[in-house]
């Protein structure tokens, strides 16, 4: 398991490159900063509208725009590492081979503390990414990443599907994941019907249940929880359920200081 | 420290702040609510074309982006932001109903400002609806630099014509068009912009308004050999560059088509760099706030 500086972690895709967040709130109090999910090649993202507001949540389908690994390693990672948060790089891709290639390169990149494999992209197929529907798909990806990651710990972010999350957690840890990340978006649809994810306080009770399911089934596996965390009490609920750390994501889009504030409250 | 904001970004450009502001005044003028908000440090950093993101209604996650109409000192508080709200959806209605003394979570100023000419060249400012707001402080900055300012303000009707009286104070020539002809000439920006541009002899055109208006201005400027700077308003979620919810299709300096964030690489972009045709179908779907 990755050595965290504290229990509050910036979730993938909600902290930008780090610069946007760092301009408004210090990153040094957070336990780790998770990058947006990176792919081997640059992605422009999907069509607009990409995000819709819903009571207590956001429905989103951005298509994971990003610079691709090369530019990330050359421009974004060095800056982020200088700011001194523990950097966890989130990874996704169109194939198992792409995941493995990205992991291989990250294993040689200075400053990376861990790899989070994003197996929970709720609109993967719509955006040409590997659609991880079955736990054994997840296990295949994790095994390939672990093989290339060398000494880097690999965190597996699995789908927050209450009925199957324990099974997913079991197979990805069997495949070599050092920890399981539970939470993130629920599969949903934008108002026009396009596949999307639902994030924000609406998903918190589901994510919390997922954490308790995994803890009950696999007491020895470190679980990072998250999903709709907005307040210090939300974070405490995940920790009380047995999570070793809590991710803060969507709340940062509403208040970019949320992660720093919760970290300070829990310190 | 109530406000948070740290260095970084471009040299000489102050980072935005996230802070708690307070409504000092709220006044209805026509269809718009004019809010005066003190948010320590934000007004001091404002440059015309930048905007603020505010939280609404406690439970809503997406923020509302508001143009800054001006900065004016309020006794005992220092410089305060003047914001323009068109109450059309749940968030903007909530904002319009905030009483004096209400707290408001404010992040800003955000985005890139209008670039000012180095030489005292003639300028034309084109604004439509509430989005004309940033052109008023811009006009003041341009006048300070000795740039002659002509102004073309447009609106669907008189109630949504922003600050027509103030326009006469900041510009030496003012043209008003409304879709229903209730004030000024009947018509749209697209109908008159080429003529107004020729009359003004402007070398730089600044525009703020709906996408079709900006497109018309950018095209007219290009034909007249003038530079154009357009403040592109896209529906956005965070305003801080995190969410990737406001994609803006552009052509980069290198001629390569790419998609940038309207909130961060914009809202002000060169009119000849925007791929307008790809933007218009989207703009037809999403207004700033869905009613």
TrEMBL record, chain A:
Task: Tell me if Oxidoreductase is a UniProt keyword of this record.
Answer: yes
Q: In which pathway does it act?
A: Pyrimidine metabolism; UMP biosynthesis via de novo pathway
Stretches of the chain forming a coiled coil according to its record: none
* Statement: the UniProt record of this protein carries the keyword Flavoprotein: yes
Cofactors that this protein relies on = FMN
Q: Which keywords has UniProt assigned to this entry?
A: Flavoprotein, FMN, Oxidoreductase, Pyrimidine biosynthesis
Q: Which residues form the Dihydroorotate dehydrogenase catalytic domain?
A: 3-266
Q: What is this protein called?
A: tRNA-dihydrouridine synthase
Organism of origin is Nocardioides oceani
């Amino acid at each position: 398991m990755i050595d965290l500086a504290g229990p509050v972690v910036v979730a993938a895709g909600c902290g930008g490159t780090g610069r946007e967040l760092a301009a408004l709130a210090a990153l040094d109090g957070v336990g780790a900063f998770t990058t947006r999910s990176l792919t081997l090649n640059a992605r422009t993202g999907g069509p607009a509208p990409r995000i819709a507001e819903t009571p207590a949540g956001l429905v989103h389908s951005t298509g994971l725009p990003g610079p691709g690994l090369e530019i990330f390693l050359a421009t974004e990672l060095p800056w982020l590492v200088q700011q001194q948060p523990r950097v966890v790089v989130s990874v996704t891709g169109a194939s198992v081979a792409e995941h493995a290639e990205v992991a291989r390169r990250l294993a040689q990149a200075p400053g990376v503390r861990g790899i989070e494999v994003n197996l929970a992209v709720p609109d993967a197929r719509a955006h040409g990414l590997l659609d991880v529907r079955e736990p054994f798909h997840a296990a295949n990806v994790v095994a390939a990443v672990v093989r290339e990651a060398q000494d880097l710990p690999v965190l597996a972010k699995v789908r927050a599907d209450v009925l199957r999350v324990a099974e997913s957690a079991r197979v990805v840890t069997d495949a070599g994941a050092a920890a399981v990340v539970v939470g993130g978006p629920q599969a949903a649809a934008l108002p026009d019907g396009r596949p999307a994810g639902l994030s924000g306080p609406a998903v918190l009770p589901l994510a919390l249940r997922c954490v308790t399911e995994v803890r009950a089934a696999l007491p020895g596996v470190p679980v990072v929880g998250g999903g709709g965390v907005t307040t210090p009490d939300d974070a405490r609920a995940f920790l009380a359920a047995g999570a070793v750390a809590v991710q803060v994501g969507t709340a940062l889009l509403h208040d970019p200081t949320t992660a720093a504030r919760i970290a300070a409250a829990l310190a | 420290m109530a406000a948070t904001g740290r260095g970084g970004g471009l040299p000489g450009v102050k980072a935005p702040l996230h802070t708690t502001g307070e409504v000092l005044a709220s006044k209805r003028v026509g269809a718009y609510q004019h809010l005066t908000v003190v948010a320590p440090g934000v007004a001091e950093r404002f440059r015309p074309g930048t905007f603020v993101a505010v939280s609404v209604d406690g439970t809503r996650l997406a923020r509302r982006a508001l143009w800054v109409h001006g900065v004016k000192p309020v006794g005992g508080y220092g410089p305060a932001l003047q914001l323009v709200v068109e109450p059309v959806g749940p968030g903007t209605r909530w904002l319009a109903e905030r009483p004096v003394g209400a707290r408001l979570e404010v992040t800003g100023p955000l985005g890139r400002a209008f670039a000012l000419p180095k030489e005292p060249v003639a300028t034309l400012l084109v604004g439509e609806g509430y989005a004309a707001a940033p052109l008023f402080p811009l006009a003041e900055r341009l006048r300070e630099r000795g740039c002659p300012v002509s102004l073309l303000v447009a609106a669907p009707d008189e109630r949504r014509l922003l600050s027509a009286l103030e326009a006469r104070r900041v510009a030496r020539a003012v043209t008003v068009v409304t879709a229903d002809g209730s004030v000024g000439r009947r018509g749209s920006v697209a109908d008159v912009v080429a003529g107004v541009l020729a009359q003004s002899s402007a070398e730089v055109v600044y525009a703020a308004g709906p996408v079709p208006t900006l497109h018309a201005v950018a095209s007219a400027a290009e034909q007249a050999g003038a530079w154009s700077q357009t403040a592109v308003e896209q529906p956005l979620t965070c305003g801080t560059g995190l969410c990737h919810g406001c994609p803006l299709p552009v052509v980069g300096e290198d001629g390569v088509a790419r998609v940038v964030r309207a909130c961060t690489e914009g809202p002000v972009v060169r009119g000849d760099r925007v791929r307008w045709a790809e933007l218009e179908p989207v703009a037809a779907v999403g207004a700033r706030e869905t009613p």
